[in-house]
Amino acid sequence: MSTVSSTGVLVTLEQAHGSIMIFTWIVFASTGILFARYGRLLHFGEKRKILGADVWFQFHRAILIVAAVTTLTGFILVLAKGDNETVSKNRDKNRLTAHSILGYIIVASVLVQVAMGLFRCGPQSPSRYIFNRIHRAVGIIAFTFSIPAIFLVASVLQNNTTGLMVILALWTGWVVILVIILEIIKHRCQATSAEKTEATQPSKFNTLKLFLFLANFLVALSLAIPLIVILWQQ
Ligand code: HEM
Ligand code: HEM
């Protein structure tokens, strides 16, 4: 049912699957998770709330619901391709199987995350810590797995594999550096606001975080786009 692309390494549905997954996990997921982990005290000028809820929460919920919808769309696209002998040859089956296993874990995590997020108990409930811990662990695992999942499939592609590997290595390196910087800021921020009664953060940290979130968005976008372009050349 699916058409083989010009060079025949990937079918169109696989390219569409890869493109949507790359965009979702590099651009959307990283942005949405950053807001939940490091953006809790964010404010725009005096504003700490948008439409009645905290800035971080509105961004986190909206971006990750979109990410969930696009992940499921990407999943349906790869299921729709069916078994195609022409494109299965010349491929490393083990790496593709490993990719599929990580992929299934990510798709399952997304369903669990959204269900958990929507049906969570209130912030004051004594059981709330269960949601917080499980939701955090599952979210971080899904995001972490997305990196090897993309690496594995990129390593079996034939056109410009070096380009794909360099871009993915840059993405991995950027995520590690960004997390280290933001963890340091978070630690310093906690030390400063511990002396205050209200949970606010000094405006220099607020500006720095907003700058880093924007930088992440731009880095993610400028790495995801060439990855997708190379994918369509397979
Ligand atoms: C984090 C992002 C990704 C997720 C969550 C994901 C998820 C999945 C899943 C669940 C499957 C198994 C489907 C089945 O059993 O038929 C799969 C297969 C596949 N994915 Fe992905 N994928 C991702 C990224 C990519 C990328 C970037 C590409 C690049 C082309 C890609 C290409 C493929 C291919 C070719 C298959 C078929 C494997 C086979 O025939 O054995 N995926 N993916
Ligand atoms: C694919 C979907 C999602 C992923 C991957 C995800 C991921 C995460 C992660 C990693 C954290 C923890 C950040 C930290 O380390 O502190 C978090 C926190 C949170 N998320 Fe999500 N999330 C998703 C969807 C949702 C949805 C749909 C909602 C609400 C409707 C939601 C509500 C929350 C809340 C309330 C917290 C804070 C929990 C706490 O107080 O520790 N999430 N999310």
UniProtKB/TrEMBL annotation:
Using the UniProt record, give the first listed, main subcellular location.
membrane
Per UniProt, what is the membrane topology? Multi-pass membrane protein
A molecular function (GO) held by this record is: metal ion binding
Spell out where the chain crosses the membrane. 20-38, 59-81, 101-122, 134-157, 163-185, 210-232
Q: Where in the cell is it found?
A: Membrane
Broad class of enzyme this protein falls into:
translocase
Q: Where is the Cytochrome b561 domain positioned along the sequence?
A: 1-191
Q: Which domain of life is it from?
A: Eukaryota
- What EC number(s) are associated with this protein in UniProt? 7.2.1.3
Tell me its cofactors. Answer: heme b
Q: Which Pfam families match?
A: Cytochrom_B561
Q: Which UniProt keywords apply?
A: Electron transport, Heme, Iron, Membrane, Metal-binding, Transmembrane, Transmembrane helix, Transport
Q: Which GO terms describe its cellular component?
A: membrane
Q: Supply the CDD domains for this chain.
A: Cyt_b561_FRRS1_like
* Entry protein name: ascorbate ferrireductase (transmembrane)
Q: What is the lineage of its organism?
A: Eukaryota, Metazoa, Spiralia, Gnathifera, Rotifera
